[in-house]
Design goal:
The protein is mostly helical.
Length: 260
C-alpha cells in the first residue's frame, strides 16, 4: 500500500493553471461579496462567503489534489471524487449566491462592455431558464453520468487527460444545473414552486410524497458503474469485499443526497 500510494504522491504536482484559476475566481467573488455587502448586508451574511470558498476548496481537492491520481487507480477514490463534484461543490457554491458577487467583483468596464450585451440577450436568458427547469436539469445530470460510465467512454477518459478533464466539467456543469432550481441563487426567478413548498405539500398529499420518493431513488447510483482501475486493490492493501462495500455505500449516498 505504501509503495503504490507513495508513487502517486511522487508523480503528483499542483496544476498551476487550474490552481491559479480557482484562486482568481475566489478573489473575484470575495471582492464582489464585500462590495454588495455594503448595501445588502442581510442578504449576504458571512456564511455565504464561507460556503462559496469552501466549495472552491473542495473542487480543488477533487480535481487538482492527489485524490485525482488515486481516482485513476481505485474505484472507491473515483466515486468519492464524483461525489464531491456532484453533491458537495454545487450546493456550496450556489449557497454563496454567486451570480451578483462574481459580476460585481469583475472590473466594471469588462462587465459593461463584454458581459453586458450577452446578459441582455433574450435567447440566452430563455436557454438558461430552460436548462434550469427541474426535469431538464435532472435528465441532463443523470444522462451525463450514465454516458460517461459506459465502459468504452470510461476507458477513453481514463486514458486521455484532456477528455478526463472534460468529463469532470460535464459532471460539475450538469450538477450545478440540477441544484440551481433547488437553491435558487438570487436574483434567479422561477415559475416552479419552491422545494420547501413542495415538501409541505408532500405531507398533506400522499401521491406527491410517493413521487418525491420515486425521484430520489432514481438518481444516479455509482454502485452500478464498472471502472477499470489501473492498479489493483491489493496494491493498496484493500480487500475486494471491503472495496465493494465502500463503493456501494458511497454510490447509494450519491443517489440519495439530492432531493427533488
Amino acid at each position: 500500500m505504501e509503495s503504490a500510494a507513495q508513487a502517486i504522491f511522487e508523480e503528483w504536482s499542483p496544476p498551476l493553471f487550474l490552481t491559479l484559476s480557482m484562486l482568481l475566481v475566489a478573489a473575484v467573488y470575495a471582492r464582489g461579496w464585500f462590495l454588495i455587502r455594503k448595501t445588502r448586508r442581510s442578504q449576504f451574511p458571512s456564511w455565504r462567503l464561507c460556503c462559496f470558498l469552501l466549495g472552491i476548496g473542495i473542487l480543488w481537492i477533487s480535481i487538482a489534489s492527489p485524490l485525482d491520481g488515486f481516482a485513476d487507480a481505485l474505484l472507491s477514490a473515483h466515486m468519492v471524487e464524483h461525489l464531491l463534484l456532484m453533491s458537495f461543490v454545487p450546493p456550496l457554491v450556489l449557497l454563496g449566491q454567486p451570480v451578483v458577487p462574481l459580476l460585481r467583483g469583475l472590473p466594471r468596464s469588462f462587465t459593461r462592455s463584454i458581459l453586458g450585451p450577452f446578459i441582455r440577450l433574450r435567447s440566452l436568458r430563455r436557454l438558461t431558464h430552460w436548462l434550469t427547469t427541474p426535469l431538464v436539469a435532472w435528465i441532463a445530470m443523470n444522462l451525463t453520468f450514465l454516458v460517461w460510465h459506459i465502459p468504452a467512454a470510461y476507458d477513453f477518459a481514463l486514458g486521455n487527460e484532456r477528455v478526463h478533464d472534460f468529463e469532470h466539467l460535464c459532471f460539475l456543469g450538469t450538477a450545478i444545473l440540477f441544484w440551481w432550481p433547488l437553491l435558487r441563487p438570487w436574483p434567479w426567478r422561477s415559475a416552479w414552486p419552491s422545494p420547501s413548498r413542495f415538501s409541505r405539500r408532500a405531507k398533506t398529499r400522499p401521491e406527491t410524497g410517493r413521487f418525491q420518493i420515486a425521484v430520489r431513488t432514481t438518481l444516479p447510483c455509482h454502485a452500478i458503474s464498472r471502472g477499470r482501475p489501473t492498479l489493483t486493490d491489493k496494491s493498496f492493501g484493500i480487500g475486494s469485499s471491503n472495496e465493494s462495500s465502500f463503493n456501494l455505500l458511497i454510490g447509494c449516498h450519491q443517489g440519495m443526497t439530492p432531493k427533488a
